[in-house]
Amino acid sequence: MFSSIGPSRPDPIMSLMEQYLADDCPHKVNLGIGLYYDGEGTLPLLNSVHEAQQRLMTQERPHSYPPIEGQAQFREAVQRLIFGHSAQQTALTTLQTLGGSGALRLGAELLRQLGVCRIHLPDPTWPNHLAIFSVAGLTPESYPWYDNANGELLIDALLDRLATLPEGSVVLLHPACHNPTGMDPSPDQWRSILDTVERRRLLPFFDAAYQGFGAGIEQDIAPVRQALERGLPFLLSHSLSKNMALYGQRVGSLSLHCPDVAAINVLGTLKGLVRSSYSCPPTFGSDIAATVLNDAALHQCWRDETEAMRLRILAMRQRLATELNANGAGLDIGRITRQRGMFSYTGLSEQQVDTLRQDFSIYLVNPGRICVPGLTERNVDYVAASIASVTR
Ligand code: PMP
Question: Does the ipTM surpass 0.85?
C-alpha cells in the first residue's frame, strides 16, 4: 500500500538546526533558523505575553471549541493592528489561522477554488512558499527581486516583469523584512509597485511575518494599508509567531480585501475550507494575543518589547558590519546595514558557508543567509573574525 513512498528530502533549515544541536563545540553559533533570540542568546518569553498568560490561567475556563473563523476578540484586534483606522471596512474579512503558514495554505486553497493556477513569487523567497503553494496545486513562478552579486533590489526588472503579467495574476509580496534577503523596497519603490499592481489589475498576496522588525510596527505594514486605501483587492497572511514570540502556539490570520463581493460570502467559503481540514483553530495562543492587544497597558508593553527586539537586531547588524570592517573582511559589508529584519543575505558563497560550519561551528543557511538575532555581544566578534578569515 505505502511501498511507493520513497525517502523524502529533509528540510534544509531544520536539518541544519539538528546539526547545530549535535555539535559539541563550546563556541558554536546558530545563525540558521529564523527565531528571534535575545541578547543572552535565549528565546524570549515577552513580559506582555507572560502577563496575559497568567491572567488566562487564573480564569480556569473550560476548553470549548472556538468558532471556525476564530474568536471575534482575536480577529478584531488583529485587524486593528494590521489596518489601523481603516479596519472597519466592510469589504475586509479576517480569519484566524495556524500561524502565517496556515494562512498561506488557506489562501492558496481559496485561490485554487477560484480557478487560479499560478502564483508569482520573488526570487529568492522563503523556501516554504514554494512547498506550500505547490502542494495546494498552484504552480510557483518567480519574478526578479534581488541581485546577490551587487546586493541590490532589482526594482526595474521587478516592475518590468509585473507589467507583463496577465490581468488577475497573483503576486506574492513581502511587505517588510523580506525573507531571505532582508532587502525591502523604499516607500517610493512601493508606490511604483502598487501603481503597477493597480494598472495591471494584479492580485497581491501579502505575507507579513515580521511586522515591527523592519522600520516599526506601523511602517512595516504600510504597503498593505496603501493597497487598502487604493481599494485594491488582496490577500494577506499575517503571523504573530516572531513579534509575540508565540511560535509553537501557531497564531496567525488570513485577511481578504474583496471590494467586488460581500466579504461575508468569502468568509463562508474560507470557513468551509477550514472545517474540512482542521475544523477550527487552537485557542490558547490566540487568547494570549487577544489579551495583549485588547488591554491598553499590555498592548503598549508589547509594542515597547517589539521595538526593543527591532533595535537589538539593528544594533547587531551595525556591530557585525563594524567588526567585519575592522577585520578586513573581503565582503560587500554595506549590504548588511542596508538590509532590514531578521535576515541578511551576506553574499558569502556556498563554499564559505560550508567552511564556516565545518571549521568554525558557525551555522548559516545557503546561500549565505544569516539570522541576525543569532548574534550577541558574546559571539559577534568571533563571527566577524571567522567570516573575515574565510573571505580574505
Ligand atoms: N512567511 C514568511 C516569509 C516566513 O519567514 C515565515 C516564518 N519563517 C512564515 C511566513 C510563517 O510563519 P509561521 O511560523 O507563523 O507559520
Answer: yes
